[in-house]
Amino acid sequence: GQNIDQPTEMTATEGAIVQINCTYQTSGFNGLFWYQQHAGEAPTFLSYNVLDGLEEKGRFSSFLSRSKGYSYLLLKELQMKDSASYLCAAMDSNYQLIWGAGTKLIIKP
Amino acid sequence: EADIYQTPRYLVIGTGKKITLECSQTMGHDKMYWYQQDPGMELHLIHYSYGVNSTEKGDLSSESTVSRIRTEHFPLTLESARPSHTSQYLCASSEGREADQQYFGPGTRLTVT
After folding, report:
1. Distance CA B88, CA A24 (A)
2. CA–CA separation, B72 vs B26, rounded Å?
3. Cβ–Cβ below 8 Å for B104 and A104
4. Sheet containing strand A3-5, strands side by side
5. CA neighbours within 13 Å on the CB side: how many for B1?
6. Which of A30, A63, B16, B109 is the most exposed, having the fewest neighbouring CB atoms within 10 Å of its CB?
7. Is the dihedral angle over the CA atoms B51, B69, B61, A5 positive or is it negative?
8. A43 chain-B contacts, CB cut-off 8 A
9. Cβ of residue B101 closer than 8 Å to a chain A Cβ
């Protein structure tokens, strides 16, 4: 079956760095997405990886290893506004997104 | 900035009622999607569309229907609401290319009593 695993909740300190991991199993693979979702709001796009390696975008970076079925989202210089859920989603061979349940990130002062 | 709208934002309705959740986008996107999301849970695909007159079923489609008569409009209808339909419903759209990001509307929070 198709499956996404990511931690349910993580806590980090303002100004620090946090890494949110995601492992996936899909029928075929056409890329890995990360979305941010603040409580009560809609998800917003953060990153897309389809090739192995690290993609950096400001304070956020995303890494992909296709051979390991593994991705992580790295958030640097954490700010209070980064408190949100981070959703990992893998695109299967039919270009459908398989979504994880999200990782709730709590930022403490 | 994405322009995708959903109405109503909140709805409380009794069991057995027929309801239609509206979704419109002004970006000219070909692909549109309906998802259901419970708190702390993953998004489940209900229906999707590749374009006008195209509709496909997702994982949770059996109790709802959709239509795509115009590019910008993708309404979702529940013929007979049940308490198990209580959830957040999210509409999304993307351009025609396969691996494009999806833009989400603000959602409709539905409560069936």
Report:
1. 25
2. 6
3. no
4. A3-5, A18-25, A70-75, A60-65, A53-57
5. 2
6. B16
7. positive
8. 43, 90, 102, 104
9. yes
